[in-house]
Amino acid sequence: MTDLHPVRRALLSVSDKAGLVEFATALSGRGVELISTGGTAATLRESGLAVTDVAEVTGFPEMMDGRVKTLHPAVHGGLLALRSDEGHLNAAAEHGIEMIDLLVVNLYPFEASVASGDDHDATIECIDIGGPAMIRSAAKNHRFVSVVVDAADYQDVLDELQAQDGRTSLDFRRRLALTALSRTAAYDAAISAWMTDVLGEKAPRRRVFAGTLAQRLRYGENPHQAAAFYKDGSEVPGIATAVRHQGGELSYNNINDADAAFRLVAEFDPADGPAAAIIKHANPCGVARGASCEEAFGRAFDCDRTSAFGGIVAFNGTLDGDAARAIAGMFAEVVIAPGTTDEAKEILAAKSNLRLLTTGGLPGPGRLGSPGDCDCGAASGR
Which fold has domain 212-358? Predict the structure, then answer.
């Protein structure tokens, strides 16, 4: 039996409508029937596309301010039915359930609601229920159903349909399912973290962490180890949100050391004066205060000039020209600071291999940026 399955019927229900019309137009052009909900259906109709309301499929109107619209056997049966199982197909026929071959859903913007400081009730309304349920149904049945949760994958779906004559392969559907299940896991992690903060829990029974791939790293701490860098979506100033002004991509060790150095200097309030820290391979080579960034750096450097070679330098304030000239006299891999003057950037630009990062601020003493402002790490065992 072939693992290729045709896409004849698609359900689209998206919060972020970027690229939606173009994608749906291409699907319609291939003869795919479009089903949709609320605002998504309205957007498609405004663009001249024929679309069936999900309410026509379920026989029930959207209700309770949109809280209930797709939680229905006509939807989930169409997603979950095994096309190779005669019993499933007979049950679907008996109850008038038609198959859904492609699900396109992106979720209510819960993370954005939290980040914007919405009040409790508004944030609650951004907890998507029907979306994750449909995503999980489609992903579970990836033997037959394709599920798309990111607009970035729209073109890949169209390319697959073109290459496979209107069908998708099992390997392609598996990859989409992985992305989909990872998205719902991250979504639930964000909701759990928010509830943890709302309740002020320091050690909930279960704590969940999630991240989005930011960079594939060449290797880990050592060349034989694989590594990747993920961001959790928080906007706390730090290595994950820093702007790189020059130099190549950061390595695993660069990221770890720059993070450690920046966290260290963040413990020193800029109101009490400049502070600098130098870290090399997770070891502090020096940390000091001074009357100026230059003096703070010089004192930190004097703690252990040998170990500081090839290290990471962090400041708790704006990097100025005098400090940059001092740094130019040593070999540093990374310099990270809340900000930098144009003069400092010009001076360090001569050292093309040095990575210069600015964060736009400090996380503040004790504020680490992880969910619930906690620091987490892995330990061996279970």
Answer: Cytidine Deaminase; domain 2 (3.40.140)
